[in-house]
Write a structure and sequence with these properties.
By secondary structure, the protein is mainly alpha-helical. It has helices at about 10-25, 30-50, 60-65, 65-75, 85-100, 130-140, 145-160, 165-170, 200-210, 230-245, 255-265, 270-280, 285-305, and strands at about 180-185, 190-195.
Length: about 300
């Protein structure tokens, strides 16, 4: 391969920035998704710069062929990408190339490269007592009572109402005073109503009472120590620390509390359509993965309890 320009010097890098703005503003993708997809775009540009030995422009992106795209994926696989990560990389590349073609729709003339086969992942929930122990341990590490109340309320909300971390942290003062249900805004600004169990409601009300920062209708309820917005990374780090202290498995994450909410409801006879509404899934297929979790749990119980298993 010929020498290439500095990765930041390629004209197509400006297009990657425009794509990031488009994903954030028009497609309403999460900050994490925007960062990940923008990084994919820059990796593709850097690879093409080396592969072709020339400055990568929009015209170069429009002229990429299947062999070059396969070469890029092969290069990424040598860097240790799993099938799932490679499939995500290919999805990001297709989106970026479609944007470069001037049309973000599905029917764009981009190289037809088949992605790796990916076995559908099965969510891994944690037991109810582990969910409570996790919340208790995180709260116990706080150096101020109101912070302990905040962390306890957030984790109970994730498990008790099946919220994503971003959804919980996005609740504003308009939700106060609390009732039996809560309106949350999920992916792509879709709003749904979720139940608020008495214990969860009491935890949030206790936090609001202790919080030293004013609660206005247009401000976020869950605040950082200095009164600013609370970042999801703070919640994830706290859970990671508690997981280590309690000796829980690596699957114990804030999002696992949402999985646990879904699988525990399903195990107790919840209707799949109702569960779809509670989780805010756009398609029923996203919710159906929990039926596999429930079946796996039943098999596990059978293998451990049946004398002939």
């Amino acid at each position: 391969m010929a020498a290439a320009l500095n990765p930041d010097d390629h004209p197509a890098c400006a297009l990657a920035g425009e794509w990031a703005d488009h994903l954030r503003r028009d497609r309403r993708r999460s900050p994490h998704t925007v960062r990940a997809y923008t990084a994919i775009a820059h990796r593709l540009i850097a690879f093409l710069g080396v592969h072709r030995g020339e400055a990568v422009t929009e015209a170069v992106l429009r002229s990429i062929d299947a062999a070059e795209l396969r070469a890029f994926l092969s290069h990424r696989r040598t860097q240790g990408l799993s099938n799932r990560s490679a499939a995500r990389e290919l999805s990001g590349v297709r989106g970026f190339l479609a944007f470069a073609a001037g049309d973000d729709g599905e029917e764009v003339a981009i190289p037809n490269v088949r992605g790796p086969k990916v076995k559908p992942g099965v969510p891994r929930p944690i037991a109810p007592d582990e969910a409570v122990a996790l919340a208790e341990d995180v709260a116990a590490q706080a150096d101020e009572p109101w912070v302990a109340a905040r962390d306890w309320a957030i984790l109970l909300l994730l498990y008790g109402s099946g919220l994503r971390v971003s959804e919980a942290l996005g609740i504003t003062g308009r939700a106060l005073p609390l009732g039996e249900t809560l309106s949350v805004t999920g992916k792509r600004d879709k709003t749904r109503i979720v139940p608020l169990l008495p214990k969860v409601r009491a935890a949030i009300e206790d936090y609001v009472r202790l919080c030293p920062h004013p609660m206005a209708p247009d401000t976020l309820i869950f605040r950082g120590k200095r009164g600013g917005s609370l970042g999801s990374d703070v919640v994830r780090r706290a859970v990671r620390g508690a997981r280590v202290r309690l000796g829980l498995s690596g699957r114990t994450t804030p999002h696992a509390l949402r999985h646990s909410f879904a699988t525990h409801l399903l195990a107790r006879g919840a209707d799949l359509r109702a569960l779809q509404e509670l989780l805010g899934h756009a398609s029923l297929s996203s919710t159906q993965v929990y039926t596999a979790v429930d079946a796996a749990h039943l098999l596990d119980v059978y293998r451990h309890a049946h004398p002939r298993a």
